[in-house]
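Batch job 17 of 40 flagged for manual review because the log was empty.
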Amino acid sequence: MPQPATHAQFPAAVSVAVEQVTLPGRDAPTAVVRLDSTQPGGLIIWSSAALADLQAALAGIDQSAVEAVVVVGNARSFGAGANLEEIRHAQESGDAEAFIAAGYHAFGVLAELTVPTFSVITGQALGGGLELALHTDHRIGNAAGGPLGLPECRLGFFPGWGGVHLLPHLIGPEAAINMVTFDSLKGRFVKPAQALELGLLDVVLDASPKQEGWEDAWQRAVVEILNDDDAQDSGVGALSADELAAWQKAIESARTKAHKIWRGAAPAPLAALDLMEAAATQTRLENGQAAIASFNDLVTGEIARASLRTFRLVDSRSRKTPDRPEAPGRGVRKVAVVGAGLMARQLAALFAQSLKVPVVLTDIDQQRLDEGVQWVADKFAQQAERGRMSSADAETLGQLVTGAREDADLADVDFLIEATPEEMSIKTAVLSHWATVVAQDAVLATNTSSLSVTEMAQSVPNPERFVGFHVFNPVDSTPLLEIITTEHTGDTALATAFDLATAMRRTAVRVADAPGFVVNRLLLRMFDPVLEALDAGMDPKEADHALDPMGLPMTPLQLLDFVGPAVLLHVGERMHQAYPQRFHVSPWMKAVVDAGLTQVLPPRGTATSETYLVPAVEQLRRNTVESASASAPADGDPAPGHAVSQVELLQAVENALAEEIGIMLDEGVVARPEDVDVCMVLGANWPLYLGGITPYLDRVGASERIRGQYLNA
């Protein structure tokens, strides 16, 4: 077993310098603690060695010689959190107490100073960076600063350096709970203006660290606070009876919400809630001792290990993919999008905004084409209205997207992607036509979500330039991009696809052409046992909540309503054609689609135990069950399928997923289990805080039940 980390293993990457500065209009000097990265332009990341340096520097300040202490970050960050590599080492050694205690005690020196203390938050303040700021009496931000937040629960643990105690006392328990738990697991942070409203920041400056006058600006802000006698007492006092009651109510409400959302599958936020509940009456030191012990138990557990592993995996893939070929990609100076429906419009907007190059839309329907071009221009204008870009930028981007008047408008494109309806005949006709219009070395792509890229390639002269380019809906917010290759796909086309993904800020995963690719294939395989159970007569509510222990963001039927019954049936039928032994067509789902029904669950807040499904949908389900029962063989054998318990259904889904992932790995659809985890986290919103789908299947025993070994062997 690895031994606890030493400072030599994880050397300090933060420089800590202390100087005395007499601020404008003041007589006594102030101790200014300047933090910087030892790497030029780097983030401030805390290892135990850096924390020791900080503790020594703070302890060395002679409080009798200064009137205040100000901690200032570098231009890029005030702090980006703890060294995750050292936490990972602590997980392997089974002992994280020393590392967590190091941060707690280093920051605690700042909290115990008797002179007023300030944090000048320059860039981002995340995790330990924000916790450091919470230990000071006052926090000064700037309008151009980075996000502020506590992402630890998303990584499988919680803020262990005092945040669970200090934050609720600063901004109130309800707001603190949201930031520590619910916002964390959604990957949400606050901007400086929002932090000011919450009371997390005392002031937000217009000046920024990258501008002249920054030093003068923050110094004046410190002086204004020092001149305000009422602002000096920021200690945590005892709560009144009413405040204690409100605190407890916020905790109880959060626990109820947590159970509804995570259904017991996420231990980190629950541990954080326990500590925030105790923080109402405990001192910082008392709460800190409990936090250190709780953090150690949590972070060395299987779920936190898997969560951190998958976070590091996803983070590294966002910066560099292992499957991009060494060949140079084609420079893309102009893009064509074939089609003008919603997906095509979204793609055109994404290409224009990401690449800043001309994008030409084309469609056989002139009215739809005109509407598509206008839709893109309106989208950019709306973003400008919301403050996400300037009006000038919106106008410039809108002008980049035009509609084709004739074929010649597409002749000089470097990259053409078709985004037409999911019908093979339409796509092959489109590709065969445009392949003869564009240059012979232009890269061609399809945005199909389910059809055979190999079959489409047959309609393309020089198929080595053809690649699948599956961008997920919603286009603006789903970070995954599946790049699908055939046996003919050349290195230039593949490299170009990866380069475009990088420019579009998408994480690309290379996938061999196979029905459903990765995400849709696994989602359909997950649905299959649930639909079979419903067809066999299982209670819909029990079936829908059988997968609660998996911690998924939606129940199966909520996801069904999100994608739509018709889409699910369409893709399901294709998967059944490809793999009839493992994918089935649900008679109930077919009946729902044939009846033209688009939702199976009643509107939120109206479902009861008697009407869990829309009444018409429930009647179709009963008809399906009765029909199956009536068709049972005369010898008394049961009809295909049988009602199962929730435990049995959960295990059936786990087994199905383990089997399908194993087959995909054996067939080379993806190169490694990590590819599956990246796809499901980024493309299907599989909970990162549970560590990815393959570690989950290993953890619950499904991999061994089905394959006799772990997927991550």
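Reviewer: the log was empty due to a logging misconfiguration, but the result itself is present. The CA atoms of residues 381 and 395 lie 7 Å apart. Unflagging and moving on to job 18.
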